[in-house]
Amino acid sequence: KAKQIKKFFNKILMAILLIIIIGGGMAASINVEKFQNLIRFDEHTSVATRLEIWQVGAQLIIENPIFGIGLGQYQENYNQRAEEILGKEPLEKTRLHSHNVFMETWLNAGVLGVVSFVWIILLAYFQLLKVKKKEDRFLLYAGIAMLTYVVIHGLIDVTFWKNDLALIFWLIMGVIFSLYKKDV
User: What is the pLDDT of residue 141?
Assistant: First the structure.
């Protein structure tokens, strides 16, 4: 019991140290121009541009909720409709994709596509929960980390709809689904 308490407090200590390190890094970067760009929404920054891109994408989903707009049609729709949807000239005249994997999936493949994509991700997480062998623990943690990274990064980019990133996504899925083997 004392060993478990010691492990628990070590984890809490590590979490506190991690928060202090991350918080210190963030506090030190407040005056750095790159950090300032994250909080400027009215200038031509990455965040401001993405907010406009997402606004256009959201409107396109509202207008085409069932089937989306079709594969690879975001750029053309953005070019033609961004100014109308935003009510002003967009910061970027042309955009290739929506910078959000879930939005992009919905736009490309409709509601069935986004439901299927989310289902694949959930199946992968459930697959990881089935791993019981000690020798597969490293792959289990690596699989969780990689899949979580793809999902989180997908909130600001299209981690599935670019050829190279799609290949990485399916390699991760292959590793995850190969971890659990039923006893035959």
Answer: 83
**Amino acid sitting at position 68:** G
Burial class of residue 95 in the structure, from the number of CB atoms within 10 Å of its CB (0-12 exposed, 13-18 middle, 19+ buried): buried
45-77 burial string, b = 16+ CB within 10 Å, else e? beebbbebbeebbbbbbeebeeebbeeeebeeb
pLDDT band at 176 (very low <50, low <70, confident <90, very high): confident
What's the pLDDT tens digit per position in 97-141? 999 999 999 999 999 999 999 999 999 999 888 877 777 778 788
